[in-house]
Design brief:
about 140 residues, mainly alpha, elongated
């Protein structure tokens, strides 16, 4: 892999801002456009940018594929667990009002936040895993 100094310096400068913007999109999704899917795609794109500039080996050290698989599963479990919690509290699946029966608006906020968090974690991990799978094809050391 060629080492392009300017690209590496720019990437080290811009990737933290990409992640910061993804966090803004994640937490602003309750009140306006955005949310878990968009934030997950932005984080995944930041990781793909890192991989393109610093190489698959360095990216796999930062986010090992096993860790990404666990994070994708955790994202799904957060989403599904939110719905199951509503069922166990006596409501319908993903009926957020059950989380705070005295103040349904607060229950809605909590439920939406948890679902969007699960989607964000799952999408970012899955996007990165898919990119790792395609970029590591034919490389023996990445077939684990």
């Amino acid at each position: 892999m060629q080492h392009h100094l300017i690209l590496r310096v720019l990437a080290k400068f811009i990737i933290p801002f990409i992640v910061l913007y993804a966090l803004y999109v994640q937490f602003h999704g309750d009140f306006g456009p955005g949310g878990g899917f968009q934030a997950g795609v932005i984080v995944g794109a930041g990781m793909i940018l890192y991989t393109l500039i610093f190489g698959l080996e360095n990216a796999a050290r930062i986010a090992p594929p096993g860790f990404l698989r666990v994070m994708a599963a955790i994202g799904i479990l957060i989403y599904a667990g939110t719905g199951l919690a509503a069922l166990l509290l006596g409501g319908n699946y993903l009926d957020y009002n059950q989380f705070n029966p005295h103040h349904p608006a607060h229950g809605q906020e909590l439920g939406i936040f948890l679902v969007e968090l699960g989607v964000g974690v799952g999408v970012s991990a899955t996007m990165t895993l898919i990119f790792f799978a395609f970029s590591g094809r034919g490389r023996e050391e990445h077939k684990r």
